[in-house]
């Protein structure tokens, strides 16, 4: 497969790998752009397996940068729902049509964005102090959807970004919690992905070539995150979530 890739395809894949690094250390939710780039130039299943391994590399850099800033109570609270979502995603991926699955995920993502923005605005009007989206119902809703979407399309970034954003995490707590969450979940996905045959020797070789781009993106992201304003951060996450959902929809 590698020998058949054109210079244009290599450029797109390298850009996608760069985005993976950036999304892990600066802009959670931006990884959906990498999903789009990889799916545009590789077969669907091969793109998913190839991207998963690069995401795990990015997770390691995110942990190096933000491992001390995680909110473990949130991660533990969501764990059972994520496991359920992963199992449902694995079963669904084995039987469903790729196009239909992506469209379903897109609709759910847009609903998540809409509900999150509505709840935050309602809280601002009422002057409530409790974090939006921090209860058990929200944890199960976002957690199961996150597990499902990450299994079928590596697209849980926008879902979890909306949950952490709704909980009003500061930038570093947001990035630290995301880092540990995705490191654990992506490693847990490996047996499922190998069983489905979406990780192959060809994808492993391709990943070895693309890992340097992930590293460059991660280092760029660390410098960017140190300078990022909280309001700008929130807006970038929301915009990338909507863009990613629209991509999956079409």
UniProtKB/TrEMBL annotation:
<protein>
    <recommendedName>
        <fullName>Probable membrane transporter protein</fullName>
    </recommendedName>
</protein>
<feature type="transmembrane region" description="Helical">
    <location>
        <begin position="74"/>
        <end position="94"/>
    </location>
</feature>
<feature type="transmembrane region" description="Helical">
    <location>
        <begin position="232"/>
        <end position="249"/>
    </location>
</feature>
<keyword id="KW-1003">Cell membrane</keyword>
<dbReference type="Pfam" id="PF01925">
    <property type="entry name" value="TauE"/>
</dbReference>
<keyword id="KW-0813">Transport</keyword>
<keyword id="KW-1133">Transmembrane helix</keyword>
<comment type="similarity">
    <text>Belongs to the 4-toluene sulfonate uptake permease (TSUP) (TC 2.A.102) family.</text>
</comment>
<dbReference type="InterPro" id="IPR002781">
    <property type="entry name" value="TM_pro_TauE-like"/>
</dbReference>
<feature type="transmembrane region" description="Helical">
    <location>
        <begin position="169"/>
        <end position="188"/>
    </location>
</feature>
<keyword id="KW-0472">Membrane</keyword>
<dbReference type="InterPro" id="IPR052017">
    <property type="entry name" value="TSUP"/>
</dbReference>
<feature type="transmembrane region" description="Helical">
    <location>
        <begin position="100"/>
        <end position="118"/>
    </location>
</feature>
<feature type="transmembrane region" description="Helical">
    <location>
        <begin position="49"/>
        <end position="67"/>
    </location>
</feature>
<keyword id="KW-0812">Transmembrane</keyword>
<feature type="transmembrane region" description="Helical">
    <location>
        <begin position="194"/>
        <end position="220"/>
    </location>
</feature>
